[in-house]
Amino acid sequence: MQELYHTYYESPIGILKIAGTETVVTEVCFVDSSSQIQYGEPGISDVMHQCTEELIEFFAGKRKTFSVPVHQEGTDFSQQVWSSLTQIQYGKTISFLELAKKVANEHALKAAASSNGKNKINIIVPCHRVIGTNKNLSNY
C-alpha cells in the first residue's frame, strides 16, 4: 500500500485539502473550517506539489487545463462520468441531462448526477461545470 500524503492550499475561494500518494492526487476538497485541518503531516509528494502549483496557476488565470495525475475509486460508470467532466472546456457548462447522454442515456440522469456529486477531486475534475437543464445551479 502506498503512503498517503496531504497538504492544504489557501485558494482564493477557500482552503483546499489536497491528498494523494507519490504518484496520483486522490482528493481536492474544500475545508469548511480550520478545525478540519490535520497537523503533523508526513510531508508532500512531488505530485502533490505539482497539484498545488497547477491550482495556483489556475486561480491566477494562467492555466485552463490540468496535467497532474489523478485517481479516485469508483464504479465503471462513475469513472465514465468523471472522465466526461474533464472534457468540459474551461468557461463552458453542460446540463446534467447532457452529461447523462455522454455516458449512457437520458434515463441515467440521476445516476450521472449522483456520480458527479461523489467526485472527490474538485476543480481538477470540474463537477462545478454541470448545471441544471434550466441553466440554474442544481443540487447533486
Name the features.
140 residues, alpha+beta, three-stranded antiparallel sheet, two-stranded parallel sheet, 5 strands, 29% helix, globular
Describe the structure.
This protein is α+β, with helices and mostly antiparallel strands. It contains four helices and five strands. The strands form two sheets. A three-stranded antiparallel sheet has the order 1-2-3, covered by helices on one side. A hairpin with a 4-residue loop joins strand 2 and strand 3. Helix 2 packs across helix 3.
Strand order of the largest sheet: 1-2-3
Oligomer: single chain
Mean pLDDT across every amino acid position? 88
Distance between the termini: 32 Å
Q: Give the overall form.
A: globular
Q: How much β-strand is present in the residues?
A: 15-25%
- Which series of helices and strands comes N to C? EEEHHEHHE
Instruction: Please outline the major beta sheet.
Output: 3 strands, antiparallel
The chain-level structural class is: alpha+beta
Radius of gyration, taken over Cα atoms and rounded to an integer in Å: 16 Å
Low-confidence parts:
none
Helical fraction = 25-40%
Supply the number of helical segments: 4
Number of strands: 5
